[in-house]
Automatic annotation (TrEMBL):
<dbReference type="GO" id="GO:0032259">
    <property type="term" value="P:methylation"/>
</dbReference>
<dbReference type="GO" id="GO:0008168">
    <property type="term" value="F:methyltransferase activity"/>
</dbReference>
<dbReference type="InterPro" id="IPR006764">
    <property type="entry name" value="SAM_dep_MeTrfase_SAV2177_type"/>
</dbReference>
<dbReference type="Pfam" id="PF04672">
    <property type="entry name" value="Methyltransf_19"/>
</dbReference>
<keyword id="KW-0489">Methyltransferase</keyword>
<keyword id="KW-0808">Transferase</keyword>
<dbReference type="InterPro" id="IPR029063">
    <property type="entry name" value="SAM-dependent_MTases_sf"/>
</dbReference>
<protein>
    <submittedName>
        <fullName>SAM-dependent methyltransferase</fullName>
    </submittedName>
</protein>
<feature type="region of interest" description="Disordered">
    <location>
        <begin position="234"/>
        <end position="271"/>
    </location>
</feature>
Length: 271
């Protein structure tokens, strides 16, 4: 899934087969590339907000694919560094795709002592949190921003709730949990059969949840305003520090039609 997302967002960490898959999705419902850009821009704004406004200087980004669709010097770890007053912002990317892990380790880690890329999976949350790099590279006595971008890979509802519980109870007080989740809530009824057919053939274990179901995953958490919304609606107008002019937000995908992003997003404070 991460390589398909990367291909849709215009990144380089993918194969031709992934680009072909994007074309299949676009034939069923021509919104995937726009949605991928909207998600990237949401992530950029979240990282910028948490670093600049909330003062977080540690990030664990789970299931991002280490997005290469962002411009050079504007990737998520770059945004965190540029926005934070701290000179020692640390970022750990957790990814389960071997190609993505290898490429990111080869192209990011040699140039920075403050970024690590580890092989891990939210579907094996206990192993992921126990990883040596995750445990030692981050300071677990200070607030951490955890970005869970692969919640749709958690197709067992009980286990999905367990993952959220583990993250919220493992993160130190004052931390934040950000969530992105794909939905079919805005897919026109006439397109739903074709979209579901393509999904069943390509990503059969992907969990597509309604807004109410995503709210259930976040139950009991203190959501940062504006709460759980379509990703373009989360702090719009504050600029897009990841892909456009930080002062204008000119590159804000789906700004006029937020539901076409196909993804909900939220940031929660962990007391």
């Amino acid at each position: 899934m991460t390589r398909i997302f990367d291909a849709a967002a215009g990144g380089k960490n993918n194969f031709q087969a992934d680009k072909d898959m994007v074309r299949h999705f676009e034939q069923a419902a021509p919104v995937l590339t726009t949605a991928a850009r909207a998600v990237l821009q949401f992530l950029a704004r979240v990282v910028h907000h948490l670093a600049a406004v909330e003062g977080v200087d540690q990030f664990m980004i789970i299931g991002s694919g280490v997005p290469s669709g962002l411009p050079a010097g504007r990737r998520l770890h770059d945004i965190a560094r540029q926005a934070s007053p701290s000179p020692a912002v640390r970022v750990v990317y957790v990814e389960n795709n071997p190609m993505v892990v290898t490429m990111a380790q080869a192209t990011i880690e040699p140039f920075s002592d403050l970024v690590r890329v580890v092989d891990g999976d939210a579907r094996e949350i206990d192993d992921m949190l126990g990883d040596r790099v995750v445990q030692t590279f981050l300071d677990w006595d200070s607030p951490i921003a955890v970005l869970l971008l692969s919640a749709q890979s958690l197709d067992d509802e009980e286990y999905a709730h367990y993952v959220i519980k583990r993250l919220r109870h493992t993160a130190p007080a004052g931390s934040f949990l950000a969530l992105v989740h794909t939905t079919f809530d805005a897919v026109p009824p006439e397109l739903l059969p074709a979209v579901r057919d393509v999904l069943a053939m390509t990503l059969p274990h992907l969990a597509i949840r309604t807004k109410e179901e995503v709210e259930g995953l976040l139950d009991g958490l203190d959501l940062v305003d504006p709460g759980l919304v379509w990703v373009p609606q989360w702090h719009p107008g504050t600029g897009d520090p990841g892909t456009g002019d930080p002062g204008t937000g000119d590159d804000l995908a789906c700004a006029d039609q937020p539901p076409t992003s196909g993804n909900y997003g939220a940031v929660a404070h962990i007391p």
